[in-house]
Task: inverse folding
């Protein structure tokens, strides 16, 4: 039996892609839109060492597996793979074939795999985990994200809206939910490259402070703020949000930070943000969530080791309860998961359009990580594996929420 047949048997009989292997064998659907090429025995060695998505990801990131055709189409064609349940007879066949090449365990995972050390969600470990993902290259992010440099779910007014139009609409929706008005003070935690900070300052006359654990993000944002002539009203600092000493803000935005906080830290997180607000001040919490509580908080091994180390996703009910119990009255929430699928599709297109430059900038392995993770996430939002929720809370002024009878946005 050839290597292609072995790989097809591991994936399942209903795989609708063509599979080709270095030994000349073929399997799967001949002439399919997507072809998976097994370039080396190391592909199966990675699967033997780490059955499941991690083994497949290692094979692809290392180059032992190649995907010819669109990555999203390839992933959509794969069946639900339960590689941990490889039948014993197939395991034996795999072991015999690998032994013939003097292989079983691979030499090691690809160099870009990350395993953080230290106390989970300590300031030191959080800083290293954030730096691993975000301090890659500002130029790389400019190619992938586009001019907005917004690395969070956009809001599409229409399905035909451009990515830039949708990112503007997202920032504006957040501003209107927060009730921003001229002269207010905004704190944006986990501010990225400063998109929300600059939008609030430029379009709403707000004095805005953003904080990020990424040094490269802060440097890029401060330069952009100066170039837009906003230095008197906008600032981005390279600092942990927990080290912000100022208080008395009218509003707090948290757009894509909560995924990095961790379940055990949620009470302190929301309590800390409530303490930064004036009475009647609002918090808009925008983050990826689980669709329900049937799965654990931590992501799959591929995302955890190659994309967002120490990331944790909670069901929206968990977030709402934590907000309610730690200083906020929840006034509104909505699920934008379809919008995130559209956002990711835009980022995927951007990456493919700049593929050669991206590889030259960050290396082939890291570029492959991005191609795989963004296509997989697009599929995940479409299939309701993950969701994106905006939750609006108010720090009450006694019993007064300073909130309109109907939402004004």
Result:
């Amino acid at each position: 039996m050839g290597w292609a047949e072995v790989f097809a048997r591991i994936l399942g009989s209903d795989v609708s892609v063509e599979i080709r292997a270095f030994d000349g064998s073929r399997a799967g659907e001949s002439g399919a839109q997507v072809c998976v090429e097994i370039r080396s025995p190391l592909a199966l060695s990675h699967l033997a060492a780490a059955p499941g998505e991690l083994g497949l990801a290692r094979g692809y990131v290392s180059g032992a597996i190649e995907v010819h055709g669109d990555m999203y189409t390839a992933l959509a064609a794969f069946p639900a793979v339960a590689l941990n349940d490889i039948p014993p007879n197939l395991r034996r066949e795999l072991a015999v074939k690998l032994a013939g090449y003097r292989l079983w365990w691979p030499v090691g995972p690809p160099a870009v795999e990350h395993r953080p050390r230290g106390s989970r969600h300590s300031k030191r470990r959080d800083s290293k985990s954030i730096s691993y993902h975000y301090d890659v290259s500002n130029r790389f992010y400019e190619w992938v994200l586009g001019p907005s440099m917004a690395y969070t779910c956009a809001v599409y007014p229409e399905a035909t809206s451009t990515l830039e139009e949708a990112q503007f609409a997202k920032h504006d929706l957040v501003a209107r939910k927060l009730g921003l008005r001229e002269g207010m003070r905004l704190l944006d935690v986990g501010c990225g490259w400063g998109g929300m900070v600059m939008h609030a300052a430029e379009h709403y006359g707000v004095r805005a402070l953003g904080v990020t654990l990424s040094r490269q993000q802060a440097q890029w944002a401060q330069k952009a703020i100066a170039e837009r002539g906003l230095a008197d009203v906008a600032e981005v600092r390279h600092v942990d949000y927990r080290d912000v000493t100022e208080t008395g803000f009218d509003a707090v935005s948290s757009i894509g930070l909560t995924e990095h906080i961790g379940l055990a830290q949620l009470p302190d997180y929301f309590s800390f943000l409530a303490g930064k607000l004036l009475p009647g001040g609002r918090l808009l919490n925008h983050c990826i969530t689980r669709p329900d509580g049937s799965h654990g908080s931590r992501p799959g091994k591929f995302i955890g080791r190659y994309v967002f180390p120490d990331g944790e996703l909670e069901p929206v009910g968990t977030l709402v309860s934590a907000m309610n119990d730690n200083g906020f009255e929840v006034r509104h929430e909505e699920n934008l998961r379809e919008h995130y699928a559209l956002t990711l599709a835009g980022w995927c297109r951007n990456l493919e359009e700049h593929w050669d430059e991206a590889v030259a900038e960050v290396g082939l392995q890291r570029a492959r990580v991005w191609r795989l993770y963004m296509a997989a996430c697009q599929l995940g939002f479409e299939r309701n594996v993950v969701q994106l929720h905006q939750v609006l809370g108010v720090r009450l002024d006694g019993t007064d929420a300073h909130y309109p009878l109907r939402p004004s946005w």
About this structure: The mean pLDDT is 90. DSSP finds 16 helices and eleven strands in the chain. The two ends are 62 Å apart (CA to CA). Residues 364-382 form the longest helix (19 residues).
